[in-house]
Every structure is written in structure tokens, then in C-alpha cells.
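C-alpha cells
===========
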Amino acid sequence: MTQKTAVLYARYSSDKQREASIDDQIRVCRDFCNAKDIEILRQYTDYALSGKTDQRPEFRKMIANAPESDYVVVYMFDRFSRDRYDSATYKKALRECGVRVISAMEKVEDTPEGGLQEGLLEILSEYYVADLARKVRRGMEGNAFKARNNGYKLFGYDTDPETRRYVINEGEAACVREMFALHIRGENVNSIARTMAERGWTTSKGTPVDYNWAYRILNRRAYTGLYSWGGIEVEDGMPQIIDELTFSRSQAVVPKKRRADESWEDYRLTGKLYCGSCGQPMHGCGGTGKSGRRYYYYACKANGGCSRSWVRRELVEDSIADAVLDICSNEEKMRMVARRIVEAYTEPGEEQAEIEAANQQIAALEREQHNLTKAAMNGFVTDEMVERNEQIKLQLKNLHNRLGILASQLCEVTEDDIVSFMTHGFDRSDEDFVFGNVVNKVYLFADCALIVFNFRDEVGDLEEIRVTLAAQKKCEPSEGFTLCSSGVGGGI
């Protein structure tokens, strides 16, 4: 039997992790491959780059080099991408090259049910972390009611180290006052930004100031004395830099900032929608009507496709989402899905041992943190202690995140829990789960759509359902078809 091969991919973000975390990720991935007898061909690493974008040199090189291996191994799936649509697109591109993305820390089977399992793991893990986040937020809300700094640097202010309240930075405050005065006299935001950049003002990251920086300052009510955080507002919570009259006069000359109602690239069925006529993938595109209104469509690629008329995005997605929610309300079908998901989980022995080890690490770190706090209260503080305290906070956060994943993998969730969630626990607001984990593929015909789900029926075939669509070509050919759901037919 030919030995399987893999490449490793690791990434860290400059604002939340340290460079050493790359070594930790690679070590875990290597241990995983060694345990599975997978040969490692090479590794790709991106330093200080966010997973929310695909503009990562090593990541793009790894995609371009496929299929050099059987697997791409990552520490956790969020190292591959934090953007669900990028993740789906690139995973699909790799699958077409015969390459599968696997996580060294998250056990997801390569089955149709695995897509559902992965989605449920994410939801359960997010709930665990969200519970911790709520506790942290309560403390931050307490700070907000007292108008204390919650970790945000505001240009024009410093923070009093004892009270944690904002105090005026006179040098920056003078810049703020001048900016408002220039704007009231008629200078536009771009001109003001250029003036301040020429004088050497920089952002908190050290880059020259720009239009966005100036725009935020000219629209920040904090300078009038209003403290605001997370929906909590405290009048006179900030030291006043400008008065209300100055702010109002500036607002009177600020043009309304134009924003698109939707992102041009927010297409939920990317990588899953296929033309029913020619079988080619359909991609997202946009157009503008005679009235100037923007429209969003799915189109069959002209190169290799049949170049059929464009189809309105929101109407297709609404019909698919309604059909998904309809079939997921069927308790009998969801009982079948739940049974298969529970069966897909591995024995919990390894996870239980790791949970115990993680809890021991957490206890040891909390003891060390307690000792550092006592020393600080006694007046003994060094730079090394401060740095170590920050390291402990990061380690505790990572351990709690890992505990959330492990707890979900223990399969303490029963069939009844999964059935209850599938039939009542999510709705249209959970579109990431609906389109990302429940739907496998969609084939769009002229008058209907065939949805293939990520679960099987009792005889082992992928579950399918046909959604009937009424198609009516509009007068203007550029506007394509208008589609609306006319109910859900029986299973195919």
C-alpha cells in the first residue's frame, strides 16, 4: 500500500499570537502525521497574517502547488482560514486536485456526515467560548458604567494608570481641535488627512494617517464628553475636547458616507451551486440596472459553460434556505441524521485523557497567576513578571478554547440533543450552518433546483430534494431571471 503524503500549513496573527506559536503548530502536526504514518513533504508558514484574508504568500503557494500531496495538515481548521467562504472555495479547489484538508486537533470523518459533524463541533465550541466571553464582558461592562478604558486607545486621550479613566493628551487634542476647525471652514476630509500626514501624525500602528482615520475622528462623539462602549453610554464620561456646537457645525458639512447595502462578494452558495444545464459551477457576479440600483446574481461561466442568463442571488438563496429549514423540521429525518453523527464520533478515551491534562495545566497556570498577583499587591513588580502574566493569559485562553472542542468530541450530546437542535435550534440567522454544513451541492435548472444534503437516507444514498421555482424573464435581458419559491416537492 502506497504511503500517504502531506504538507503542513501553519499561521499566526500578529495581534493575538507570538511567533513561537508557529513552532507549536508544526510540532503538533508532525506528531499527528507520525502517528498516522503519513510522510511529510514540506511545510508552509505565514507569519503575522490574518486568516480572514487569502492574501497570504505561503497559503497561495500551497494552493498553487496542489496536488503535490494527499493531505494538507493544519493544527486547527481556523489556521487554514477564518473566512467561511474562502475556506469552502479553497477546500473545494484542493478536493478537485485530490487533496483533503485535515486538522491535527479536530477529528472529523471524511464522510457526508462529517460536514454536519464539523459544523456542530464549531457551534458547540463557540458556545463554550461564548460562555467564557460573557463572563469577561460582565467585567468590561462594569468598567464601562464607570467610564473606564476597556482597552481601546482613542486619539486625543491617554489613560490614568490608577483610575483607568481617560485623560486629555494635550498634543493630540490640539490636533483634534484644528481638524474640526478646518472642516467647519470647508476643507474636505481627504485634504485634512493629507495635512495631518504631512505634519507627521501617524496611526496607532505607526502608519501615516489617511482618510479613514480623519473620518473617524470627525465623527467621534467622545470628543464632546460622551463615553460609549458596547451600547453603554455615560454622559460627561470623557474629558471634553470640543463642545457640542463645534461638533454639530462639523456634522452639518459632513457628506453622508455611502455604503453598499451588501457586499459584492457575499455569495452563500459559492463552490456549491452548479448549472443544471451544463454541470459547470456558477459564480457570483453583479450588475447595475437602468435606475442605478445594484443587483446580485449567480452566473454560469461562459468559458466552458453554457452562458445561461444570470439568476438573482437573493431569490435563489432564499428558496434554498427555506427548503433546508423545511426538511430539517422533519423529526424522523433528523433522527436518522443524529444517529449517524453520533456513530461517527470516535471512542472518548483519548479526549478524556487530554481534558484531564488540560485541566491540570489550567490549575497550575492559575496558581502561578495568583502568586504573581500577590507579589504585585505587595509592591514587587518587574517587567519579567508583567510579560509572564500576559503569557499565562494567552495560554489559559488557548486551553479553554481547546477544552470546548474536546468536550464536544466526547459525544456527551445525545441523539435527542441533536434532533432538538436540528428541528428547533437554528433558523435563517444561522446561514453559515445552513449553507456551509447542511447543503452539499445545488443544481440549478430553468424552473427548479435540486439540493443534495450532507446526510444519507436509510439505504445509504445522499439525501436529495427538489425545490420548484417559477421563472419569469424580465423585460431587460441584463437583469436575468427573477425566481421565487413555490413550495417544496417530494424527495427524489
